[in-house]
Amino acid sequence: MAMDANTMASQLGFAAEFFNSDPELSQLIRNAVNGQWDTQKFQGAFMNTNWYRSRSAAMRTYADLQTRDPSEFAATVERKRQEVRDKASQLGIQWDESYINEVANAFLYWFPDEKAQTDFYAQRINYTPGQMGGTPAAVEMQVNKLAGDYGLSLTNGQISDYVSGIMHESYTEDNVKGFMRDMAKSKYSGMSGFLDQGMTVRQVAAPYVSSYSNLLEVNGDTVDLKDNVLQQALQGTPPAAGQPPQMKSVYQFERDVRRDPRWLRTKNARDSITSAGQGVLKDMGLVA
Asked: What are phi and psi of 115, to 5 degrees?
């Protein structure tokens, strides 16, 4: 039984309309039907066409669906458009509907690979520190929290590099954490051993922060490790010439906090001064 164009095309998983959409392919299927080629010969000739060799598998699938099932093709494109809208919004990227349509079709036709699409989005994020929304803002918050935990002050350039690196998937959060740990080891050489064990500067500084919050009567969760009196304690001083700095003891740190003008404005400072005054008067025998 002779095969018609529909039967012949179905051997390769396509519809006849697909072959009729291109002059080269249209001539090919006419030759195949006229010669009643077997599947192997037809497939070999198809794969040897300029049309086939100049297109990826995604392009061929895209073109086939467009001719074989226009309604499903339209639904596929619309689903991709919505995916692009959602992703752009999540990344804080502003695209109009015309460009969203272009991107959706390009993803389906040119580069369906997920990694390629991720790179496409990442390259179009115009990152501005403190002015982003969506995922970039969340990543920026994450980077700033890590910097705070390691007692570091980052420039806008450093923040931009870390955020962009994570968005491009060239860095992971662990990579950024490692970068900051190395910076902290240089800045707080007296706690290098603790940092090598996986602790953050904030974790090492917990006893100092506790004393700081108690003496200055502030919420410990809001204490900034970059506070001068904390920095002096955590960075420490060399115990002797040529030796690495050592952190101050908590006792030394508390003594320094009591010398800070802020301590004099606290209730515990007033109570301490009053108590000390009472002790002097008792020693002088002026009060019982």
From this structure: -65, -40
Please give the C-alpha separations between residue 157 and each of 63, 109, 144, 153, 168, in angstroms, as whole numbers: 44, 36, 13, 12, 16
Angstrom distance (rounded) from CA 39 to CA 102: 36
Angle at CA 247, nearest 5°, toward 244 and 252? 135
Between the CA atoms of 94, 96, 98 and 99, what dihedral angle is there, to the nearest 10 degrees? -10
- SS3 of 39, please? helix
Q: Where are the alpha helices (DSSP H) in the chain?
A: 5-10, 16-20, 23-35, 39-47, 50-53, 57-68, 70-90, 97-109, 114-123, 134-149, 156-167, 173-187, 192-196, 201-204, 206-216, 228-235, 250-258, 267-283
Rounded percentage of the chain residues whose pLDDT exceeds 70: 90
Q: What is the DSSP letter of 152?
A: -
- pLDDT exceeds cutoff 80 at 191: yes
Enumerate residues 6+ apart whose C-beta is below 8 A from 214: 268
Produce one character per residue of 119-128: b if its CB has 16 or more CB atoms within 10 Å, e if not: ebbbeebebe
Per-residue pLDDT tens over the stretch 243-256: 778 899 999 999 99
Instruction: Give 107 or 278, the one with higher predicted confidence.
Output: 107
